[in-house]
Amino acid sequence: MSVQLPLPETARAPEQVDSAHVRAVLPNLAYLRAAMVNVAFIGPANAQDRGWVLVDTGVAGTRRQIASGIASRFGTSRPAAIIQTHGHFDHVGALEELSEEWDVPIYAHALEHPFLTGQQSYPAPDSGAEGGIMPKLAPLFPRSPIDVSARLKSLPDDGTVPHLPGWRWLHTPGHTPGHVSLWREADKTLVAGDAVITTGQESAYEVAVQEPEMHGPPRYFTRDWAAAAASVRLLASLEPSLIVSGHGRAMAGHEMLAALHHLADHFEEIALPRA
Ligand SMILES: [Zn+2]
Ligand SMILES: [Zn+2]
């Protein structure tokens, strides 16, 4: 099995959980775990219409769960935009429906566009990656691209994030070519997508139990490990104080940061699949 980086319970970010299971970690940042993947809400609770941004859109079949989380936090207010950290099936499940319903632009890195415009499929998952049932099931996961080209835009070249003053997008490739993370320097907040995740995804047990651990990107879909390592090192160098990732609970504080540095410093031993 993989070398794990257990995180103590005290590394969990303090959260306020509402009745729809939306987990607020800051006044203007919350997330919701729908099935096995997180979506993030950037903007204050009860933001005005077009006054917040949705990051990622979950796995297929969770649209209603996401919608009820949104209703709980924002009432009937629609987001100004949807930002996709990347286009994997477990992060775009409700993208077509929600973007149409809200009539919103979708922002993603230009290198991710072929996977969001029906042009290209992701490479087959690495079913040889060690670690139990998820890699074995991975070949059954859908890989064919969705087509949201009518609403899709590139993130601005200057690193700013539309509708999110104070935030920057960071190119964090490796897991996918156009993977991005979102960063707010003022309070060192990181929305990491799958560049680093805070629970294991390689076994059904890990997915179910969601032990807090600091992991590199999910192995069975990651192709460019050199780029993935560089991305983790970039994120560690920023010294985040809070991480909301694509999988697992939000983590914060010096224990989280120590685990992130440990992952960055020993990435090849910890994160890479065993040959
Ligand atoms: Zn992914
Ligand atoms: Zn994912």
Automatic annotation (TrEMBL):
SMART domains attached to this UniProt entry: Lactamase_B
Lineage: superkingdom: Bacteria
Keywords: Hydrolase
Sequence ranges assigned to domain Metallo-beta-lactamase in this UniProt record: 36-247
GO molecular function terms listed in the Swiss-Prot or TrEMBL record: hydrolase activity
InterPro entries from the UniProt entry: Metallo-B-lactamas, NDM-1-like, RibonucZ/Hydroxyglut_hydro
Name this protein carries in UniProt: Glyoxylase-like metal-dependent hydrolase (Beta-lactamase superfamily II)
